[in-house]
Amino acid sequence: MKSLFLPKFFIYSFGFLIAFSLFAEEGTKLIAWKPIHDASGYQIQIKDKAGKIILDKKIDTPYHSIEELPSGMYMVRTAPLNLFKKPAVWSAWKDLEIIISEPPKVVKETDTPVILSKQESKSETTIKELTIEGEHFLEATNVDLSKKGDKLPIVSKEVKTSERIDLKVDTTEAKTGPYDLTVTNPYQKPKVVKNFVQVEEPKTYTQESKQTSKENLEEIKKNERVKSNTEVYRQNEEKVSDTSKNISGVKPSESNQSQKQITTPITPKQKVTLPKGKSFHDFTYDEMIVFLETDVAINCKNTKIPAFTLGECHKTYVILNFASEDNQSVFEFYKLVSDNESNRISAYRYFSNNCNPIFKPALERMELQWKNRTNLDPEERQSLAVELPKFRACTR
């Protein structure tokens, strides 16, 4: 059932209080105000945002139907009538917003909960971003994340569109486990989504399991070479199988020639060199990796950040140079292939939202990550599942 909603507001005029509110009961849409003692009736005026009075009426009751008014912004005022049916005193003009309140809907791509992890140290506040997608969202929509009386503190709520709400959630002191999402529109039944989010303890790593950025880059290149050689080997295996099926019908000379072609050794992957005059956006993934390996800041030994992105180098910190989009894209790619999960998640968001033109090496990397998603933590896997489709579909 559709209904109208207006937050209460108050008008002070000559010592009496008039409270306007808009409510709905079984489809009836009224604007009402506090009755005035000894009033002989009331006069109500409503004007549109252009200032034109669209309703000017004397009535006997302290309320009036506005069924015929479409949603939008208006201004309203009222006055009690004296014994001569004349306005005794007008209230000030006040804003009136009529909006349609419908039952909210929540859309989820998967049945698995969104993972919100906690920090290892409680001395630092942990704020996680969460997006809710659906339909019929309003500024007045209430959002709640709770389980058995425990609530996740929502630091901020921003209604981006009628189909999207962005939240910032504080998980610092949150208990681990699943939380239900409740979305409520004024005068409508709440929409409850069970186990919408899952709060988890941070995943710990031993010192031995960590890699430096350089080791990580080498490992990525190694995996790519193994993948390439495996594919070539598989294709040759298929050729051998096809040849063995037809070998009985082949002449000796042809058979020897076929065997010669089959036993040709697999050539290793050629060494990648940096292209000249080519935009970073058009680099291949391998070319971008080579660039990161060679673009070393010789005069800034305290960091492994690419020299191309550095502005100033100091003993305890560096200042980045984002004078152009290329500078920032290269830095985000550096984060994308780092061994820091938070950096990678941040880079996923950057490239899905800044894809004009598409940064091709980043797309290759994210596709590779998706193929190997079983090796990722749940939170990173969830982020990649959201950002990669947006990156693929980017047409800006």
Describe this structure as you would to a colleague.
The protein has helices spanning 213-245, 252-262, 285-294, 325-336, 341-353, 360-371, 378-392; strands spanning 3-13, 16-25, 28-32, 42-48, 53-59, 63-65, 72-80, 94-101, 105-107, 114-117, 127-135, 142-147, 150-151, 154-161, 164-170, 177-184, 191-200, 310-313, 318-320. The protein has three domains: 3-101, Immunoglobulins (Immunoglobulin-like, Sandwich), CATH 2.60.40.10; 105-200, Sandwich (Immunoglobulin-like), CATH 2.60.40; 213-225 and 250-392, no CATH class. The longest helix is centred in the middle third of the chain and has 33 residues, at 213-245. Helix 5 packs parallel to helix 7 (378-392). It is α+β, with helices and mostly antiparallel strands. It is elongated. The protein contains seven helices and 19 strands. Residues 243-267 have a biased composition (Polar residues). Residues 226-273 are annotated as: Disordered. Residues 226-242 have a biased composition (Basic and acidic residues). This is DUF4476 domain-containing protein.
